[in-house]
Amino acid sequence: MSIDFESLKDKAVVLAQSGVTKAKELTETGIAKAKELADTGATRAKEITEIGKLKVNNSAEQEAIRKAYSELGKLYYAERGSAPEAAYADACQRITDAMARISYNNERIADIKAAGQITDEEVEAVEAELDSEENDTPCCCGECKDETPAGDEDKTEE
User: Fold this and answer.
1) Which helix (H) or strand (E) holds 32?
2) What is the torsional sign of CA 126, 132, 135, 136?
3) Who has the most CB within 10 Å: 55, 82, 113, 128?
């Protein structure tokens, strides 16, 4: 039996060229697919970023609406609070009642200060201390402060 090395060599060359061609096709297909996926990812990232920006803009617009509603309510109360239309009577009454309670509280504060000879500076010092203690307390998420300040575990609500 004789082996035709030339024929085997030709077949090997054809198979190798076929393999190279197939590898090039697969590489080109893979590159095209990777490029397509990258483009899709970039497009999606841009869309998600745009959605985030629009949500932030919506929040700003909602705040503007809230402020406008508040301003509208203040104007209405200033102009018509003493004789509101029926639909607004309950809200105007709640405002009037709250203002009366504030006025009463302020009178009580003045009476307590006068009776105890307490100065505004003493009250402000205590208020500043209370504000400082509130700021030392960690927020609800626990990320704003690393630890609870010493002694806060034993505090009771007054």
Assistant:
1) helix 5-80
2) negative
3) 113
* Phi, psi (rounded to 5 degrees) for 63: -65, -40
One-letter amino acid at 99 equals M
Structure tokens of 37?
A: 């996926």
Cα 150 to Cα 101: distance, rounded to the nearest angstrom: 37
pLDDT at 144 > cutoff 60: no
Measured between alpha carbons, how far is residue 104 from residues 11, 77, 98 in Å? 106, 20, 10
Mapped onto helix, strand or coil, the DSSP state of residue 36 is helix
Distance CA 155, CA 33 (A): 62
Please tell me the distance from the alpha carbon of residue 11 to that of residue 13, in angstroms, as a whole number: 5
Give CA–CA dist 156/158, Å, rounded.
Answer: 6
CB 108 within 8 A of CB 116: no
Residues 104-136: tens digit of each pLDDT: 999 999 998 888 888 888 888 888 888 888 776
**3-class DSSP assignment, residue 93:** helix
